[in-house]
Amino acid sequence: MSEPVRIALIDDHGLCRKGLAELLWHRAGIKVVGATGDPDEAIAILREHKPHLAIMDLRMPAMPGLALIKRLREENIDTPVLVLTMCDSQEDLSSALRAGARGYLLKDMDPDDVVDSIRRALRGELVVAPAMAAKLSHLLGAPRGRDESASRALTDRELEILAHIAQGMSNKGIAKALDISHDTVKLHVRHILAKLNVSSRVEAAVYAVERKASAGG
Predict the structure, then answer these.
(1) Rounded distance, CA 153 to CA 151, Å?
(2) Which positions ≥6 away from 210 have C-beta within 8 Å?
(3) Rounded (10°) CA dihedral 66, 105, 138, 191
């Protein structure tokens, strides 16, 4: 984007708002134009600043996130919403995506992965925490009989890394688990995405879950 990226944070925990705002600014130069846990203030922020993305928690006492997303649409506020929550249930994932959320992230994700997912959401991609891949796969009706020739093209190391991706591990976590460099993991991940003909870690994770289900294990 040529213009500065604007993001709004909607979360009832002040510490979470402050921490995420600092993370986005220092890691990605992304400015938070408004942050609140109050639904009326959230609507006012979105109307005034017209951010490119609103990052929203689900569990908020004043108004649950899903209800707030619905209210935004009823009031013709079309700001894309990205859910960032501790709730890892399939029901919440399904409800958020049906409500029109652009993605579903978990607060225990690696900070670098959160920033990367937010960048991709800003580009219009649907992003889902890799740890939710099994639940997403189930919602999509897995297994769906993908072409096994794609997985046969993967090396043993790439299959090993794909299994870790399906468990929701970050590149740093995989590098530590396999005792290899972070850059080596990133290179393997790029090769995995290319060979599977997918564009994101989430799609790769869903593929791995489907493949395991198809194999009966």
Answers:
(1) 5
(2) 137, 142, 143, 144, 146
(3) 150
Is omega for the bond preceding 61 within 30 degrees of 0, making it cis? no
Residue 217: count of CB within 10 angstroms of its CB:
6
CA distances to 1, 98, 106, 144, 189 from 170, rounded to whole Å, are: 26, 27, 13, 26, 11
205 Cβ neighbours under 8 A, 6+ residues apart:
130, 133, 165, 166, 168
Tell me the C-alpha distance between 51 and 12, whole Å: 19
* Residue ranges of the chain assigned to CATH 3.40.50.2300: 6-128
pLDDT tens per residue across span 121-139: 898 877 888 888 778 767 6
CATH level 2 (architecture), domain 6-128: 3-Layer(aba) Sandwich (3.40)
Q: Can you give the length of the chain in residues?
A: 217
pTM of model > 0.85 = no
**Domain 136-215, CATH class in plain words:** mainly alpha
**Every domain range in the chain assigned CATH 1.10.10.10:** 136-215
Cα 45 to the center of its chain, rounded Å: 23
